[in-house]
Amino acid sequence: MRSVQALAVAVLSVLIISDVSRAAEPKPGGIFRIYHRDSPGSASIHEGATYSLNVPFMPIFNNLVIFDQHIAQNSASTIRPELAESWAWSGDNKTLTFKLRQGVKWHDGKPFTSADVKCTFDMLMGKAQQKFRQNPRKSWYDQVVDISTNGDSEVSFNLKRPQPSLLALLASGYTPVYPCHVSPAEMRTHPIGTGPFKFVEFKANESIKLTRNPDYFKKGRPHLDGIEFTIIPNRSTAILAFVAGKFDMAFPTEVTIPLVKDVKSQAPNAICEIAPTNVSTNIIVNSSSPPFDNVDIRRAMAMALDRKAFISIMFEGQGDIGGTMLPPPNGLWGMPKEMLEQIPGYGPDIEKNREEARKLMQKAGYGPDKHLQIKVSTRNIAVYRDPAIILIDQIKSIYIDAELDVVDTAQWFPKIARKDYSLGLNLTGNAVDEPDQSFYENYACGSERNYTNYCNKEIEKLFDQQSEETNVEKRRKLVWDIDKKLQEDVARPIIFHSRMGSCWQPYVKGITIMTNSSYNGYRYEDVWLDK
Q1: pLDDT recorded at residue 170
Q2: Helices 382-395 and 307-315, interaxial angle, to 10°?
Q3: Contact at 8 Å (CB) between 155 and 149?
Q4: Tens-digit pLDDT profile for residues 330-383
Q5: Could you tell me if 152 and 113 are in contact, meaning their C-beta atoms sit under 8 angstroms apart?
Q6: For the segment 56-71, what is each residue's pLDDT rounded down to a tens digit?
Q7: Phi and psi at residue 39, in whole multiples of 5°?
Q8: For 500-531, how does the pLDDT look when each residue is reduced to its tens digit (9 = 90+)?
Q9: What pLDDT score does 18 carry?
Q10: How much of the chain exceeds pLDDT 70, in percent?
Q11: Read out DSSP for 67-125?
C-alpha cells in the first residue's frame, strides 16, 4: 500500500514540477498593447528630454552597456554589456575601451561597427558635420576629448580627466547608439536601430507601432511579435480602457496613487507597483530677466512652499522631500534628512517660513496692496498641471497672483530651452541616479537643459571635484554639500520627488519597474504574454 502511495506522490510531484516549468517558460508571440500619455515631439531619443520618448522608442535600440533590466535599483554593479562585449579602464582612468559585439546588424541590414559608435558620440559632443536639432545631454560628454576606433570592433573614449560615472551615463536609456548612415532628420521620423523591435509607424496623436526584429543578436529574444502604443492624453479615459481590458499595460510610472486604488477596485487581478521615479517636481524661473533676476523673489517663492501639502494632495503622503538627488534609501546620493532641514524653506514650521518670505517680497517692493502678477507655464499633461495649480494657490500667501499657462508637449522643451517663459512648473527626470548627470545637465553654465540660466562658477568647480573622486564615501559627502548649496542658491527649487504607480494585466510577464530611474527599463525583450 505504501509503495502505491509513494508512487502516486512521485507522479503528482512530477506533474506539479512539469506544470511549474511550463508556466515559467516564456510563450512567443502576441502584440503588447500599452496606452501612451501623449504624443512625443519626434522619435529621436537623443533630441528629447522626456521619457515619453524612451518608453516607445527604447526597444528599437541598444546601448554599448545597459543597466540590468531585471534589477530594480540601478547602480554601478548592475551595468551589463550590450553592443559591447566587455570594457576596461586604462591605468590612469582616462581611457575607457570597449570590445564590440561582432555580427550585429542594423534593422536595414547594414553591419554595426565602431564607426557607428564614433558617429553617435561625435554628434552628441557637437563635433560632427551633422547636428542634432536639440542636444539636451551634450554636457554629459564635456570630459571626453575624442572617440577613437581600432578596427571595426574596438572603440575608446579618451578623457581629459578621470570620470568614473561615464559608464553609468552610457548605460542610461537615453544613450542608444545611432547608425552612421542614417541622418538625424530621418531618425526623427523613421528610427533605425539594432534593438529587439523594429519601427513600423508613428502617427502623431494616434499611435506608435513596433514589430519583432527577427535578426536580433540575442537568440530567442524578443518573445513578443510587436508592441502597439495608443496615444490617449486623457488619463481617466486611458485608465478606463485599461480596466476594461483594452490594454495590457498602463503607461509606466504614470498611474497616481489614488488612481492605483481605483484600478485595484475595478480590476482586482491587475498587478500594480508603486515606486519612486527619480523625477523631481520643481520650480523653474528665468533668472536672467525681471522680476526673477531678483534673488529675494526667488528665495521668497522657495520659502513659501508647503511640500508636505503637495505630497498629501497628490500622493496621499507617499512622496519624498529632498534636494536635487533622489532621497535615500532608493536614491544612492540624496542628502540625509537632518541636513535637508537646515536649508531655508525645508524646516517644518510653514507659517514661520512664509512670514520670512513675505518680508523678502516687501523688500522687493511687493505687499498686501501691490501683488506680483505672473503666469505659471507648464506642460499640458496632468502630472505637470496638477502641481502647478497647487503652486499657484500656495504663492498667493506671499503676494503673488499667478495664472496657468499650459503648453503642448511638442512645444514645452523647446520653449523653456530658449528661455521663453518667466516662471514655470517643471518635472526633471534624472536619467541615471548619478550626480554628474544631474549637476552638469541641469546646473552647469550654458547647458542646454539648464532652463533657469543659473550659473555659479565656484559650484561648478565642486562639480568637477566630486566627479573625479573615486572613493564613493568621500564623493557622497561632496555631493551632499553641493546639493545643499544648490538649494540655498534657489537654483531650481525642488518641491518633491514623486512616487507613481505602474499597472499591468496579470498575464503580462517579465516586467521590472526601476526604483531610482524611470528612464532605463523599456527594452521589453524579456516581456511575454501568458494567455
Answers
A1: 98
A2: 140
A3: yes
A4: 999 999 999 999 999 999 999 999 999 999 999 999 999 999 999 999 999 999
A5: yes
A6: 999 999 999 999 999 9
A7: -100, 115
A8: 999 999 999 999 999 998 888 899 999 999 99
A9: 37
A10: 96
A11: E-TT-SS--GGGEEESSEEEEEE-TTS-EEEEEEPSS-B-TTSPBP-HHHHHHHHHHHT
Helix (H, G, I), strand (E, B) or coil at 11: helix
All three cell numbers of 130, joined, read 551633422
pLDDT band at 457 (very low <50, low <70, confident <90, very high): very high
CA distance linking residue 106 with residue 242, whole number of Å: 34
Contacts of 249 (CB under 8 A, 6+ apart): 32, 33, 34, 242, 502, 503, 504, 505, 508, 511
C-alpha cell at 277: 521615479
| H/E element, 400 | strand 400-407
Residue type, 163: Q
Contact 468, 439 (CB under 8 A): no
Question: What residue has cell string 485595484?
Answer: 264
CB 516 within 8 A of CB 431: no
Going by C-beta distance under 8 Å and a sequence separation of 6 or more, which residues neighbour residue 119?
Answer: 128, 178, 179, 180
Backbone angles phi, psi at 126, to 5 degrees: 75, 20
| pLDDT higher than threshold 50 for residue 11 | no
CB of 169 within 8 A of CB of 140? yes
Pairing mode, if any, of strands 400-407 and 372-379? Answer: parallel
